[in-house]
Amino acid sequence: MENNTGVTEFILLGLTSAPGLQVPLFIVFTLIYLFSVVGNLGMIVLILMDSRLHVPMYFFLSNLSLVDFCYSTAVTPKVMAELLMGDQVISYNACAAQMFFFVALATVENFLLASMADDRYAAVCKPLHYTTTMTTSVCAGLAAGSYVYSFLNASVHIRDTFSLSFCRSNLVHHFFCDVPAVMALSCSDRHVSELVLVFVASFNIFFALLVILVSYLFIFVTILKMHSAEGYQKALSTCTSHLTTVSIFYGTVIFMYSQPSSSHSMDVDKIASVFYTMVIPMLNPLVYSLRNKEVKSAFKKAVEKVNLSLGFTF
């Protein structure tokens, strides 16, 4: 990216400057990242290996796992380096790249959650038409559209942010190159850029939330009409898992981006950011999949295959 300012690098101030907290935080974030990597990549491999999981629900779950792995990787390793080695410097271009991939992948997750709600609506409310409604082409189109739009959306934010002049300071009051934190360093008029950020982010969030809320309104109406206790429990379990992560994800995102960067409390933002950059990617495989009987069965089958191939018997 072309740099029209005198700033060639940024210094990330990180989560804390207290020396006594840096090693414990490094250990905690390392464990979280390892769980996230194993959980999300393991879920992708499991879905690819087991033909019983080659259905729309798990297609979206595999994409969600891929996105969680990628956008956690865009942030967490740098945070670990900051805590362990004190490496707080990030180049101008690396900062732009980190911001681009984080914004793009977080936006993909936003629309994947909406697509998953639509999939659950079709499965619960129109089960007889599910296979004709959620076809391979429809699922691929929803996923591809999420990726294309999200990467274009990230390009807009990067252009608006890095077209500003940075001449006051290069100290980013955050542990990664988030848009509001970098934008706050600008010495040029950032009013228009802030408005674009708030408008586009609000549109993305509330459009996806509208799809989710409308889908679940119909789902809950259908559940209340069910006479089968088994069907009621199965549908309710699916809704509970999805809505739990939706609440965590959108709660933190709305909190972060519903106001201009000039009014942000960066210390509070950093705490909230830990949830959606590190904790949520770790939790998603558990919340969405490991509570699912089909995934548990596929995992057990995979373990048995590994044991047989290694010659282990129990």
Task: Write down the Rg.
Answer: 21 Å
Q: How are helices and strands ordered from N to C?
A: EHHHEHHHEHHHHH
Strand order of the largest sheet: 2-1-3
CA(first)-CA(last) distance: 57 Å
* Share of residues in strands: under 5%
- Average the pLDDT over all residues and give the rounded result: 84
Shape: globular
Number of strands: 3
Largest sheet: 3 strands, mixed
Spell out the key features of this protein.
single chain, 314 residues, mainly alpha, three-stranded mixed beta sheet, 75% helix
Short overview:
This protein is mainly alpha-helical. It has 11 helices and 3 strands; from the N terminus they run βαααβαααβααααα.
Folded structure, characterized:
This protein is mostly helical and 314 residues long. It contains 11 helices and 3 strands; from the N terminus they run βαααβαααβααααα. It has a 3-stranded mixed sheet. It is globular, with a radius of gyration of 21 Å.
